[in-house]
Amino acid sequence: MNASKMDVSNLQRRVQRFRWVAYAWLSAVLLLLARETDTPLPACLGAMALPWVPLVPSLLRRIDRWRAFAAHDVENLLTPCAIACVSLPLLPTVAVFGALLTGVVALRGWRAASVGVLQAIAGWSVGRMLAPDVHYESSRWVDVASLAFVVAYTTPLCALGYEQTMRMHRAREDLRRISSDLERQRDRLARYVAGPVAQRVARDPPTALERRWLTVTFVDISDFTALTERLEPEDLTALLDAFFSALADLAAHHGGTLHKFLGDGALISFGEAHSGGRHADARACVDMLDRLAQLVDTLNTAAHERAIEAVLAVRAGVASGYCSIGDFGAATRVEYTMIGPAVNLASRLEGLAAAGETWVAQTTRDLVGAARFDALGEFDVKGVAEPIAVFRLRAASVDAAVAAL
Questions:
Q1: For 205-404, which CATH class?
Q2: Which residues of 198-234 are buried (b: 16+ CB within 10 A; e: fewer)?
Q3: 247: closest CA among 271, 270, 266, 269?
Q4: Contacts of residue 195, Cβ cutoff 8 Å, sequence gap at least 6
């Protein structure tokens, strides 16, 4: 049971104690009125029966604890019906109605007051139809007791309702602050890990390994070691940050998932977070890599404007196939990653490609179509038993980047 349900249950128990007192007072009033009439039997019977009315909602709560409010609705109908059956005078009747409505407001708030009024009127109307013809003599003691009861009953009950309302308000504020903190932590987590990783961490328990068809690309900065020797650490950091930021935006724009940064490169997958189908994912990956040369040209221009003497060039490898995605590692430390022949092949092709080139496996080429590629022949790739056919992405932007080197 959560905190709000515990608060409501505690409030119901405390309000019920007030109602027991009210029924005891009502029984005493009926005994006083029985002395002022020639037909005391209805008042005496009512005095004996009314203290048992609160047992009805108690029994209903035991039968169905989740419908405790419905049990109080029954009580709000029975009590007015009972006081109408004994022909209770006006002032005690008003006092009882006030007590019932105060309890309704304390439990459910002011919005429920209109419902409580309708329930009380309905119960009282039924009771009046069943009531015998009984007339009570006016009693000053009964009037004084009714007024005193209204004050003594409603004041602490209203204070109790206010106290409980403020407590629940503070609990909601605490939950809102906790929710805001969790959202901020989730946003920070999303900056350090890929989107699917953040979603996976949020699941409890985490999902099992998934086998899925992906188009995978490794993007790497060519001759990064030489670049580190020529640039100051601050300039190198600024250049890398600009490259990774632009690459992340480019991947997201084409529907890819930047899975992880790998030193001076990155692993990007298509079909992991969401997929448009094998052909669409492969085309999206190739479209992204086709625009990669333009992105590098823009970064080089910006670097030269800042007097950073460097020429950034990238290479990429692409392959498509089934991959296993999920958590790998030990019980105390796991890493979300992907494994499969397509991942290994894309990594090998990226290592074989020259600066400014994108080498593509035949699986990806067949999904995209032959028009955008040049055949390079068959190559022996480490980890693959047979030579594989390799293709190079044909794009004017790529050719321009190679020529600039």
A1: alpha beta
A2: bebeeeeeeeeeeeebbbbbbbbbbbbeebeeebeee
A3: 266
A4: 257, 273
Q: What is the pLDDT of residues 237-287, one digit of tens each?
A: 888 888 888 898 899 899 888 888 887 889 999 988 778 889 999 999 999
| 358 closest CA partner among 226, 263, 268 | 268
* CB atoms closer than 10 angstroms to residue 294: 16
Q: DSSP H helical segments within 223-379, as ranges?
A: 224-230, 233-253, 278-290, 292-305, 341-352, 362-368
- The closest of 253, 8, 226, 207 to 108, measured between CA atoms, is 8
- For 141, phi and psi rounded to 5 degrees? -65, -40
Query: What is the model's pTM?
Result: 0.54
Domain residue spans of the chain = 3-176, 205-404
Question: In angstroms, rounded to a whole number, what is the distance separating the alpha carbons of residues 163 and 165?
Answer: 5
- Residue 321 tokens read as 């196939």
HSE at residue 62, side-chain half, CA atoms within 13 A, is 4
